[in-house]
């Protein structure tokens, strides 16, 4: 049976200010501010060690639309490490880091594919002929309030069809604002093998077959974001 191996992450929120912790001693606070970078470095290290075929990033790479140069440099470095390990990356932008001209000041390596504002797909092909078609769209503004799942349609033959979506499942209560809403019953009928979700900061398994997963934020920033979360290794 044909298999693929990939890492799914979302909600990196690089350069998060860690609101509520600024009263800590400065040296400690500065260490905490670096936590999201260290977590991301550990994730790319694992991707390389596991020899994954590719990495999926389902939105909110940066914490703010005005992403800092520091955050962009750190993200570039990790993408470069993956490129050197011959690992491709497929990513979408979410409500925190939506696409906007002039915001991305550093050109990412060629192993990184960024989806634009329209739902589209690209084909990943392994050296042994395995194929995966990967679908997604990036936010073009902070507020995407319409259901975009009708635009996701498996196209042609591939061993696997994988969808990236940064949004909210409507039947579940959440502390997060509702963006790009969808219903689980809708997406599980569409013929995809896996839905790589982002936006919800807790790890949640909404469905097993097909897989519909939220990996959760890579670095908890307060008491509400405690517990197991981060990268998901799928194979």
Automatic annotation (TrEMBL):
Coiled coil: none annotated. SUPFAM superfamilies: Metallo-dependent phosphatases. The keyword Nuclease applies. Keywords: Exonuclease, Hydrolase, Nuclease. It comes from the Bacteria. GO terms for molecular function: exonuclease activity. InterPro entries: Calcineurin-like_PHP, DNA_Repair-Maintenance_Comp, Metallo-depent_PP-like, Mre11_N. Residues 4-202 form the Calcineurin-like phosphoesterase domain. This is Exonuclease subunit SbcD. It comes from Listeria fleischmannii subsp. fleischmannii.
